[in-house]
Amino acid sequence: MIIRSNVHTHTDFCDGSDSMEDMVRAAIACGMDTLGISFHSFTPFDTSYCIRDYPAYMRELFRLRKKYAGSICLLGGVELDLYGQRPRECDYVIGSVHYLKEGGSYYPIDLSRESFCTAVREVFGGDFYAAAERYYEEVAGLATSIAPDIYGHFDLITRFNLGGALFDEGSERYMRAALAAADRLPRGAVVEVNLGRLFKGEGGPYPSDRLIRGLAARGCRFMLSSDAHCAGALGYDFDGQCQRLKGLGISSLVRYKGRRLCEVAL
Prior knowledge:
single chain; alpha/beta; five-stranded parallel beta sheet
């Protein structure tokens, strides 16, 4: 395995299906030396998927750090939604947009195809490009409101757009909105190459090849991410994606090795 770490990992402390210890054991078994256990930040307007018991999460993280100290480095992180609450302490922050805010309401973009299409119809009059423009404005807002260490699933707005069923991701209007957000990220921003949808067989990685090239041209760096919600997803297709990225002109990736961010040549 070229990349031996993953820091986008969800357990049953939020919306993952496996325990933290199950995830740790799976990471060790597949040869990782560093695992970050990230939870979804608390969102008071939607408690269905976010952190349920932060003190218990921290107690379990400390217990497992001690138990597996000779085998793997464990980091505690948060996937902080633009509208979520930042925890008291964490080793790193993944900044993500999961909702479009309109007035006092929050509309999830990755819950289901039906709910997404309903939101686009009710808020944007059925204009998916207008929804994408709003989404990318909020992605750009991550840089100023959160300043994350990692930008999560950059083009999550395409979650249910398999095969271009809802809108054309190659259109001038869509690409203009996406690249405008990329222009507002800081130089050297770390953007994850998120394989969660690929593991589920529901589409390709985030970002798309087209956006990978656009982000790279703007000085962004990339980090492989399982976005694992179960133990079997950890490290899924990491080596294959390294070859894909190399084919797109990406010469290196960044990863956490222990608490240090380092660069790995492809």
